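Handoff note, outgoing to incoming analyst
You'll be picking up this chain. Sequence as last confirmed:
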Amino acid sequence: MNKIIRIHTDLKVYQLSFEAGMDVFELSKRFPNEEKYSLTDQIRRSSRSVSSNIAEAWRKRRYPKSFISKLSDSEGEAAETQVWLNYALACKYIDVEKHDNLYDKYDHIISMIVKMIIKPNDWAF
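Most recent structure output, in case you need it:
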């Protein structure tokens, strides 16, 4: 049985992106202080932007071009978060397992967003 989606928080992609953003937050608490205004700030901002752009897209779903635009922003922020995860791994702030788990989670999020972009009319009301 399909669940009726009434608000953005009902979307599985929103839930997963929020969870991933919180995972990034917890992970980034361990980054060195000298990264506070660079890597830590950047990865937190991009990871949080994924779910916030999904929320905005949901509110604009009656306008397909606006809906797609906000989803594209969200997709871009998810990819940016993957880049910051790569830097965190290269700088040895996180281990391979944590990197791979979060990177894969963002791959899944991107895939879900792309499916929404491809068929925007499925989400209109």
